[in-house]
């Protein structure tokens, strides 16, 4: 194996990475065989390109910065990157562009099939699984790794900087760096987390402050997740108490201009520990007053506990706003304004203590660490070695060698001499959490292969790839056992394990991690709908919209449903709040459930609030953003950026003859510029078909007092004016939609962008998954897992870890 050098003092590690250059494969022209490709086309591909494409794709026009004047299908494999661009546009039906003369009959279909056949045959002769640099755990993976290792919930953002995004995913290796600042953050995290896990008998009293998001709803009808039933608003946190002892809880407030008194419930793990009376002056029942409202001393055992502070709910029926319309919550798009009789809002929760520490009782986290309990001094070192070996194996996601355990034992000895057995174990745990074998996802490479050669991943490395892809976590015991036996690379076993994992609830990470990033759901929180126009929108509703989309995607995965239901699904998942927003009747309660649409307005993700909000502006819809989102995210054919000097749509005049223009009228003025029209003729009809949905995803038929005109011509000539008609237009070409989905699945799975040399395998995955016009989502996912890009990689320069301390 290529050596990875880690000195005994790995807490001071530095990383030296040799530069890498991925050589493109050398292709040879392969004559299509009837058994491995389509029959020869009845048209001459070169002649079709010359007659239908060269006019625009050559000097002087050079549209798309692409010249096809010298195109020859015989050399297509040597120019695979360019040819893949042609295939993508042709499959989507976007070339020739609207208004241009297209060849008759199925000429273009034969052309694209000939291009695909040529590239696929060449790739079969010379496969390229690609290569990525080292990969480190991102924030979310780090959190799940700590949770699995220690049964401890943390917020990695307390230590680690934001993850860089590439291909809209936060796990892409080529943009992950290991700067000195990041290394220091990992070291600080390791020290803090190890203390949180083991506890601290000598902990001094400190105040830890938690602040509520200003956009989180405090409405009487909204209970914060995790707070006791019968409460409204407030804050819920996971707090680690370092020792058994007495603690105090403080709260600060804003708003509260009303005259009513409020009761505040303070609970630990759902059990009330204090009930305080809040007055406008902020004085507690004990009369302490001051800047915060405090409880008296409360005994809490060591470990992680759920702490909540929330107002006792006073109303079970219709909200009092119906008769007191000025009594608004602060949560209203972030306007910062509250009504003249606004309810008080809890702003901060403060956990203070321990005032007096009395010891450390057993906790779930300590039980995972201390698997043996020495009663005599001679028993301590063997117990410590057993404990450290188990922790390191779980943290490194592989069995550890004796020399590695010896290195960890040196940290144990230093800690034991300073503070006893538990401090020794804590010191070793800190070293484990700071190790590159924990924070990096290292994949071993054979030493005997020449640079650029392809090889299968070792089974344990494949297990980590599979688990982080499907679960977002390190592999479980069964997956480790199969990998240790050397069976995971067997295609049948790999298929069995992948499907077992997809059936497990942990596969929900595909919805919350993959789908959320692919569909850009993080952008949902960047749009703050204007509360003057959309007073009912708040962060709680936004959370419900995001959860709807995530549950919808996970349903497709676990039930192995047709992935085309992303566009055509006649059902969704809602709770009462979201159902009311959509105008659905008869749905009560906070829990989400599957419901069928009762009209022909919504279908798939194009009818879900998350997508409709994130593609809007704060005060109006944006057909341009919605059209661009569909083309970029769902179709994989993003429009080019506007040329320099072109004014933004927002700069288009908004009034004419004293009348406010509709969004469509402003778009038509903008498109009058031929330079703008080249792209907007693709985007605008798509976005306009969704314009009956307002900024928050509610259905409307008028804008600025005028009836909406959503008619448009899809780029293939189909007339569309409703969301359902848009979905139908997209579904006429399911193949490019499924290839785009699979391409994104592959990029997320292998932690690198899908490149042109991955496209032949992507086409094969989609073709294998097709069954009478359906594409089962779990089958697409398993196809990615079985691909060379997932199971293999190319050799390259190794990463070497060096440490100056011994």
Question: How would you portray this structure in words?
Answer:
With about 800 residues, this protein is an alpha+beta fold. Among the domains are: about 45-125, no CATH class; about 205-360, Galactose-binding domain-like (Jelly Rolls), CATH 2.60.120; about 510-730, no CATH class. The chain is about 35% helix and about 15% strand. It contains 26 helices and 25 strands. Strands 3, 5, 8, 9 and 11 form a five-stranded antiparallel β-sheet that branches. A four-stranded antiparallel β-sheet has the order 4-10-6-7. Strands 1-25 form a two-stranded antiparallel sheet. The two termini are about 25 Å apart.
How much is the average pLDDT? Answer: 86
Helix content: 25-40%
Question: Can you summarize the main beta sheet?
Answer: 5 strands, antiparallel
| Low-confidence regions | 1-38, 282-290, 316-328, 330-336, 798-806
Beta strands, count: 25
Oligomer: single chain
Strand content: 5-15%
Give the number of helices. Answer: 26
Ends distance: 24 Å
